[in-house]
Design brief:
Helix content is 52%, strand content 15%.
Length: 497
């Protein structure tokens, strides 16, 4: 199972797309990260970005995004409906697959410490990562916002941050970093301009005022739409579902002679939350979420679907993508071997290899798609009309990219070979077969990627560029063969019977 973390940082910028674009570029520049969504709200002056990836990749992307936001956002110039205390207001990490909440807590602490030390931004840990009970709820930390905290941090001991300086950052404010469960950001719009109505309804449904246990809520005026909004965070949608909250908001609104105009989800929502709403409103008997067709299609796409795509009468995904995928499988086996040798109470003999294997797995997984996309660019360049004055230039640029992808796969596969060799040398006996499979898969990936570098070389018109790729591929291949020889020697020792 891949190790996947979701990260949903919120930034205090919802009116300048170029700023959010720059932040997104820093996120997507990190190997092993996939950007899922970005949403901006001008009235709230806030952006919500969602991405997933391995723990290490998400941690790096979160830090890089925070660094970019601190450079581009000045809270002294920021005005908006949503409460905020930082340019990067909050960074939550959510376990998705193969990762525990405790691991997300450790990730939050690591990222928080780095933000505090490197960016000089005070960091408060919240939710499961909170250092004290009164900091579990984000609104309690954010109380007073940027302006209020600016006067309290360094003077009030209860406002001392967990990491970073005991003083507000002059422009980037403070940041909350934590680990939490899935959360739904859910807003309901009411057809009135009277914000008192929204505030009263919000007070009635939020937990801090005696409402639902897993609801945080506030009322805002939305000037552009000439209405008001009940803005909510549903922190445990399984226990306090969307449909129940919506029904109460609707009934409370009717008390004031107001009706619901619409509602919205900000960011992503688990399918189970929508499935619960379908069951409730349609009153379907014996409803099960696996009755949704797409759940089966998604499962198929992650297994046989890839094989069918490779077997289809199409040039992509081809040998380069398959080589990267095989390399990712090798990295996954190397990571598993390292973890199975890791003791519960202290670092095992392969502990330091865990992040290396996880990182390689994420990067090789990304190369599966990147290799196919690069070859598609070559095909597109070839189809350009001969009258296009840039056809040759575009073709060579695409050729270079399509050759660079399998070369990068070779380099990543070489790294996995080294990890696998260490696994064979240091692993307990019961895991050596897994370490051996990691090495065999990595070597197959390297050799396969080498073929894809070589087959592209005749397409270069620049002999020097062609020679650079040939030499680089040859060098990595020779280094890989030496490591593979060591792996073969170790396999012969351990499996000589």
């Amino acid at each position: 199972m891949p190790r996947i973390v979701e990260c949903v940082p919120n930034f205090s910028e919802g009116r300048r797309p170029e700023v959010v674009d720059a932040i997104c570029r820093r996120i997507t520049a990190v190997s092993g990260v996939r950007l899922l969504s970005r949403e901006m709200d001008g009235d709230h002056n806030r952006a919500v970005i969602t991405f997933i990836g391995s723990p290490d990749a998400c941690g790096k992307a979160a830090f890089d995004a925070c660094e970019e936001a601190s450079r581009l956002i000045d809270l002294n110039q920021h005005k908006g409906e949503h409460p905020r205390m930082g340019a990067t207001d909050v960074i939550p990490f959510v376990p998705v697959a193969g990762v525990t909440m405790d691991e997300c807590v450790a990730l939050a602490k690591s990222v928080g410490e780095r933000i505090g030390s490197n960016l000089n931004i005070p960091v408060f840990l919240y939710s499961y990562a909170a250092s004290r009970p009164e900091r579990q709820a984000l609104p309690d930390i954010r109380k007073g916002e940027f302006e209020g905290l600016r006067d309290l941090i360094g003077k009030d001991a209860t406002k001392a941050p967990d990491f970073g300086p005991n003083a507000i950052h002059a422009t980037a404010g403070a940041t909350a970093v934590g680990a939490r469960d899935f959360l739904i950001a859910y807003n309901v719009y009411l057809n009135t301009k009277n914000n008192d109505v929204a505030k009263k309804i919000a007070a009635g449904i939020r937990f801090s005022s005696g409402g639902f246990r897993y609801v945080q809520a506030a009322g805002f005026e939305i000037a552009d739409r000439q209405c008001v909004q009940v803005s909510m965070n549903l922190t445990n949608p399984a226990k306090t579902p969307m449909f129940r909250v919506f029904e109460i908001v609707k009934r409370e609104a009717e008390r004031y002679g107001v009706c619901v105009a619409s509602s919205e989800v900000v960011g992503l929502v688990p399918m189970s939350a929508l499935s619960d709403s379908v069951e409730y409103y349609l009153q379907i008997e014996r409803w099960k979420s696996n009755q949704i067709l797409e759940t089966h299609l998604l499962e198929e796409e992650t297994t046989a679907g890839f094989l069918e795509s490779c077997a289809a009468r199409t040039p992509t995904p081809g040998g380069g993508s398959v080589s990267a995928y095989v390399g990712a499988l090798g990295a996954s086996m190397a990571a598993m071997t390292a973890r199975l040798n890791d003791k519960k109470t202290e670092a095992g003999p392969l502990h330091d290899l865990i992040p290396l294997a996880d990182g390689a797995m994420g990067r090789l997984n990304a190369l599966v798609k990147a290799d196919a996309e690069a070859f598609n660019e070559v095909m597109a360049a070839m189809k350009l009309p001969d009258t296009d004055p840039q056809k040759a230039e575009k073709g060579q640029a695409a050729q270079a990219k399509a050759t660079a992808m399998p070369l990068e796969t070779m380099r990543e596969a070489l790294a996995v070979l080294e990890i696998a060799k260490s696994g064979l040398e240091k692993s307990k006996a019961s895991c050596r077969s897994d370490a051996g499979v990691a090495g065999l898969m990595a070597h197959a990936a390297l050799e396969g990627a080498y073929l894809n570098v070589v087959i592209n070389l005749p397409g270069f018109t620049d002999a020097k560029k062609c020679d650079e790729f040939r030499r680089a591929a040859y060098d990595v291949r020779e280094r890989g063969r030496k490591v593979k020889a060591e792996i073969d020697r170790l396999l012969a020792i351990h499996f000589s019977g």
